[in-house]
Amino acid sequence: MNRKELEPERSPQAAFGARLRSSREARGWKQEDLAKAMEYSSTHISSVETGRKFPTLRFSRRADLVFGTATGETFERQSREIRHGSLLEGFPEYLGREGRAVEIRLYEVGVVPGLLQTPEYASVLAGSGVKRGAITAEQASERVALVAERQAALLRTPPPLIFVVLDESCIRRPMGEPAVMDAQLERLIEFAELPNTVLQIAPFEMGERRPLNLPITVLTLPDRSLMSYAESSQRGHLERDNTLVVPMLTAYHQLQAEAPSQAASVAMISQLRKGTP
What we know:
The protein is an alpha/beta fold. It has helices at 12-26, 31-38, 42-49, 57-67, 75-84, 91-98, 119-132, 137-153, 168-172, 178-192, 242-258, 262-274; strands spanning 103-108, 161-167, 197-202, 216-220, 226-231, 236-239. Strands 3-2-1-4-5-6 form a six-stranded mixed β-sheet, with helices on both faces.
């Protein structure tokens, strides 16, 4: 039997695989036994154990169920730490709040925010990071998967109210092939049609009437407390002090008041898709 020696110190993903193998062998199981218990193929188990395949949240939760690791250092927690290792400092903590927020207010410049991205658009963004050497191919895959997980987490009952204002640059900046951008613009229109969302475009012509110049997110949590999140090139910053968050919320309301209505914004996106000015 060709048994590959593992190097858990090589990476967090390798450490996960080594732990999975040791847990399996402690029970005297072969890969086929674990595969049957987890409802995966033995090839998939082998790929995770040797670090060739990333452990998804579904896979990790199945491992916790099979091995009885429901508390403490669970496989799910280890999987999340692997995924968050490629993210900006502060962003993982923000994600936990985003998943519980009852109201989400977003203002973005330059790129469509993750909550509204198509998989293809997200892949182009992540792929550019790989080309620049900023992240690995594995980390790019993790980021694309995270976009889908964030969007799925918002499909809860009742859903959060989501207010989005996009700088015009978000819809005019080409990203990938024309088909990728066209599908992304279509996704924005579909987003605007949801009963719990409001989408507005802040056109360039707003000029100095724009009260915000940098991207910002303001969350309203279930207890009605507020939290804002902003990013620099190196880290994300969470702010919970109301004396600092409330002025941001006020500026956001002013931005919404100055920006065109949702109907006018959707019309702008539709005209862009048709290639008309």
